[in-house]
Amino acid sequence: MSPRRAASAAASPSIRVRPRRELRRDRRRRSHACWDHLIAAPLWPLHGANLGTLLRTCDAVGACMAVPRFGWVTEALRRGDTLRRPVCVHWVNDPLGWLERQRDRGSQVIGVELADEAVRLGDLPAARARTVAVLGHERDGIAPEALDLLDLAVEIPMVGTGHSLNVAVAGSLVLYKLAGLL
Q1: Cβ neighbours of residue 94 closer than 8 Å, sequence gap 6 or more
Q2: Which ranges carry the tRNA/rRNA methyltransferase SpoU type domain (predicted)?
Q3: In whole angstroms, what is the distance from residue 95 CA to residue 97 CA?
Q4: Rounded distance, CA 42 to CA 57, Å?
C-alpha cells in the first residue's frame, strides 16, 4: 500500500477502496450491441477532444452516441476512446432528419441549451423511456432549426463568469442525471 493510501486509511478506517476485480464483477458482463435507451447526440461538434471524452462517458452510463458523419469525427473518436473496445456509435448524415425520426419513433428529445423554459439540471428526472440528449455546437449551441424538435430543454446552472460548459462536460453531467446515477 502506498504511503499516501496508508495515511488516508489510518485517518478514516471506514473508507474501503474497492479493488478492480470487485468493480468488474459488479458491472455489466460484456459490451452491448446497442443499449438504445439513452443516446448522447453531439450533432454539431466543434472540437474532437470533446467527442472522445463524451464517448468514454457514454460507456460509463450505458449510453450510445450519435455523431455526424464528418471526416474528422472518426479519428477524434478513435483517439478519444481510451477504453480500446467498441462503444455504440450511431452515424448521422442528416441531423435534423435524424432528430425528427427519433421523435416519430417515440423518443424523448432533450436539448442541453440556455432557454427560457429550460429545466434546471438538478430537477431533471432520470430517463424512463428512450431518450436522446442533444448537445449543440460549443460556441453557438443547438442549431436554431433543431430547437422546435426538442421536447424539453435542460440548463446547467453556473455561478462563474463563463456562459456555458464544453460539450464533454455538459453532456457528461446530463447523461449521468438521465441514467439515474446522480
Answers
A1: none
A2: 49-176
A3: 6
A4: 13
- pTM score, whole prediction: 0.80
Question: What burial class does residue 96 get, using C-beta atoms within 10 Å of its C-beta: 0-12 exposed, 13-18 middle, 19+ buried?
Answer: middle
Question: Which three three-digit cell numbers place residue 36?
Answer: 438504445
**Residue-wise DSSP of 134-162:** EE-BTTTBS-GGGGGG-SEEEE----SS-
**Strand partners of residue 153:** 111
**8 Å CB contact between 61 and 88:** no
The pLDDT averaged over each successive group of 10 residues in the chain (182 residues) is 57 77 64 70 85 88 90 78 72 94 95 92 95 90 93 93 88 96 87
Q: Domain 34-178: give its CATH code.
A: 3.40.1280.10
What is the amino acid identity at position 125?
A: P
Query: Do 44 and 136 contact (CB within 8 A), yes or no?
Result: yes
Q: How far apart are the C-alpha atoms of 155 and 133, rounded to whole Å?
A: 12
Confidence (pLDDT) at 36: 66
